[in-house]
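Thread amino acids onto this structure.
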C-alpha cells in the first residue's frame, strides 16, 4: 500500500495561497455574489425546456461557439475573429497570463480590486504587483506607470467598474495608461451593463487593449459565460492555449438566445439601476453607515460600528452580504448586491435594526 506525502508534491506557491471563498446560505436573501436577482424571461425559460429535448448530449458542443460569437459581434460591433468565449471571464484572465507571461514575470492591477487577478498570477508562478487607489477609489496614471515600468510589467488588469469599490475609474487616467504603457491593458468590463461606460471603441485606436465581459451579472451566472474581445492577432495566440470545448452546448445556446433578444434583460438592468439609486439614498440616511458611490450592481459601504459584527448579525437574520473586512483598506466594509425591491427593503429593515 502506497503512502505518498501528497502535500510535499504541491508547489510551494500554491501551498501559500488562500482559496477564493464565497459564503452561502441555504435559505434567506443572497446579496453577496453580484448576481441578477431576476430570473430569465418566461419566454426564454420555455425555449430552454424545449431545447433540452433537442440537445444531443452525447455530442461535443461547437468548439468555436460560432452562433454565440456572431450574437456578440452583432451586439458589440466586434468581428467574430476577435471574440473568445470563456467558462466565465476568469478563464480568459488565466489564458492571457499564460500567453503573455513567463514564470516570474509581473502582472499588475489596482488595489483593492478583484482578488482573482492576484490568485491566478501566483498559481501560474507570476509576480502580482499592485498600485494604490486614493481615498476616492481612483488612481493616477503617472504613479501606476512608474510602478509598471519599475517592475517590467507585461500585463495590467483594470476592473471597470471596479469590484469591490463599485466605481468607474477616471477615463482620462485610463486613457493615459493605455497610450503610455508598453504592454497589454485589459479592461475587465464585467459590470459595464450597469455603468453605461466602455472602452470598447478605443480598440480601433490602440492595439494593446483587451476588453472582457460577462453574462453572469445579468442573469446567466449558473451557465458561466464570459467573453473577451481581443486584437485579432492576440486572439489567434490565446486560442492556442484555450481548452477544447470549454463552453458547453446549453450555455452557448442560452447565451445566444439572450443576446439576440435582449429587451427583457435590459428592463431588468434598468430596474437594478433604479434600485441602486434608492438603496444609496436610504443608506446615506444612516449615521453609522458610509456608502460609496457605485456604477455597478452593488454598493460598498463601511459600518462604523463594526463590519464583522454587522455581517454576522445580518447573516443570522437571513441576509448574506460580502464581508471585505480582511483587506487592510476595507476595514469594517461590506458589499451588498442590489436585489429586488422586496429583498432590498428586507435588507434595509434588518440593517436599521442591527446597526442602531
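Threaded sequence (356 positions):
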Amino acid at each position: 500500500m502506497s503512502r505518498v506525502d501528497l502535500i510535499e508534491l504541491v508547489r510551494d506557491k500554491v501551498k501559500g495561497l488562500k482559496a477564493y471563498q464565497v459564503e452561502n446560505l441555504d435559505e434567506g436573501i443572497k446579496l453577496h455574489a453580484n448576481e441578477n436577482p431576476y430570473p430569465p424571461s418566461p419566454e426564454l425559460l420555455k425555449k430552454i425546456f424545449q431545447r433540452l429535448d433537442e440537445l444531443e448530449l452525447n455530442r461535443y458542443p461547437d468548439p468555436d461557439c460560432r452562433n454565440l460569437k456572431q450574437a456578440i459581434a452583432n451586439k458589440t460591433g466586434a468581428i467574430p475573429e476577435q471574440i473568445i468565449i470563456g467558462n466565465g471571464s476568469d478563464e480568459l484572465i488565466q489564458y492571457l497570463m499564460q500567453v503573455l507571461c513567463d514564470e516570474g514575470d509581473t502582472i499588475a492591477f489596482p488595489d483593492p480590486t478583484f482578488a482573482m487577478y492576484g490568485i491566478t498570477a501566483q498559481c501560474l508562478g507570476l509576480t502580482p504587483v499592485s498600485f494604490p487607489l486614493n481615498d476616492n477609489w481612483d488612481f493616477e496614471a503617472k504613479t501606476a506607470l512608474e510602478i509598471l515600468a519599475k517592475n517590467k510589467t507585461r500585463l495590467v488588469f483594470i476592473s471597470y467598474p471596479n469590484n469591490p469599490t463599485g466605481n468607474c475609474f477616471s477615463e482620462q487616467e485610463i486613457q493615459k495608461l493605455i497610450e503610455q504603457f508598453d504592454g497589454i491593458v485589459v479592461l475587465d468590463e464585467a459590470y459595464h451593463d450597469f455603468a453605461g461606460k466602455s472602452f470598447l471603441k478605443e480598440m480601433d485606436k490602440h492595439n494593446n487593449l483587451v476588453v472582457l465581459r460577462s453574462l453572469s451579472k445579468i442573469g446567466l451566472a449558473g451557465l458561466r459565460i464570459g467573453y473577451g474581445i481581443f486584437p485579432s492577432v492576440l486572439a489567434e495566440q490565446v486560442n492556442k492555449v484555450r481548452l477544447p470545448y470549454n463552453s458547453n452546448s446549453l450555455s452557448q445556446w442560452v447565451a445566444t438566445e439572450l443576446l439576440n433578444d435582449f429587451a427583457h434583460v435590459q428592463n431588468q438592468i434598468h430596474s437594478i439601476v433604479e434600485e441602486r439609486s434608492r438603496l444609496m439614498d436610504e443608506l446615506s440616511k444612516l449615521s453609522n453607515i458610509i456608502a460609496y458611490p457605485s456604477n455597478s450592481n452593488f454598493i460598498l459601504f463601511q459600518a462604523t460600528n463594526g463590519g464583522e459584527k454587522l455581517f454576522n448579525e445580518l447573516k443570522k437574520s437571513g441576509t448574506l452580504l460580502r464581508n471585505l473586512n480582511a483587506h487592510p483598506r476595507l476595514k469594517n466594509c461590506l458589499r451588498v448586491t442590489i436585489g429586488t425591491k422586496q429583498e432590498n427593503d428586507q435588507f434595509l429593515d434588518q440593517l436599521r435594526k442591527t446597526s442602531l
